[in-house]
């Protein structure tokens, strides 16, 4: 089985687990995320607008004391860019149905909340398959230190995420069950 086939199989299982966990609610996940982000006040934070059954970081983003950006897909094979967001700002539909600010400054984040489909105990994430976050984290890490924070339901943990040379490891995973840091 190729890495791509293994990722597709893992993605299917993780989507099912996420859907079930979403139906039960996210518990204290957003509060734990806000606590983790508190020491990073003043730093540029990138969050995301939750879609479908993703765990929702909006409360933690709104509580952040500093600039907050939301990812904008620029095109296939490209890194994400981040447009400034604030609670109540005008939003519009972006690529793949993701909500993005209608206008605002472009920001370069130092802390990135990363959505995911699945993750493992090593800190690797399984995304949707477009490679957007892996390209983005690689680009940002080549320029400056970046804290990559996976945000998920505990049920999304997989025994092992299949990886290749392009996959970027997360620094931290936050779930309703707690915070896990990877060295």
TrEMBL record:
Protein name listed in UniProt: 5-formyltetrahydrofolate cyclo-ligase
Keyword Metal-binding assigned: yes
Cofactor annotation: Mg(2+)
InterPro entries: FTHF_cligase, FTHF_cligase-like_sf, NagB/RpiA_transferase-like
One Gene Ontology term of the molecular function aspect: 5-formyltetrahydrofolate cyclo-ligase activity
One of the Pfam families matching this protein, by short name: 5-FTHF_cyc-lig
Organism, scientific name: Paragemmobacter ruber
Catalytic activity: (6S)-5-formyl-5,6,7,8-tetrahydrofolate + ATP = (6R)-5,10-methenyltetrahydrofolate + ADP + phosphate
Keywords annotated in UniProt: ATP-binding, Ligase, Magnesium, Metal-binding, Nucleotide-binding
Keyword Transmembrane: no
């Amino acid at each position: 089985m190729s890495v791509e086939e293994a990722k597709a199989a893992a993605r299917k299982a993780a989507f099912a687990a996420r859907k079930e966990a979403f139906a039960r609610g996210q518990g204290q996940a957003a509060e734990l995320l806000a606590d983790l982000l508190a020491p990073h006040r003043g730093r540029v934070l990138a969050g995301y607008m939750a879609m479908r059954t993703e765990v929702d970081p909006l409360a933690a983003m709104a509580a952040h004391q500093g600039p907050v950006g939301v990812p904008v897909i620029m095109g296939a094979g490209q890194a994400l860019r981040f447009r400034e967001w604030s609670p109540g700002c005008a939003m519009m539909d972006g690529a793949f149905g993701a909500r993005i600010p209608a206008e605002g400054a472009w920001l370069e984040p130092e802390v990135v909340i990363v959505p995911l489909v699945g993750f493992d105990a090593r800190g690797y994430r399984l995304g949707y398959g477009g490679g957007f976050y892996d390209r983005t984290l690689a680009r940002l890490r080549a320029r400056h230190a970046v804290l990559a924070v996976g945000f998920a339901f505990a049920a999304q943990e997989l025994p092992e995420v299949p990886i290749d040379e392009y996959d970027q490891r997360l620094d931290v995973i936050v779930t309703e069950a707690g915070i896990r840091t990877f060295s």
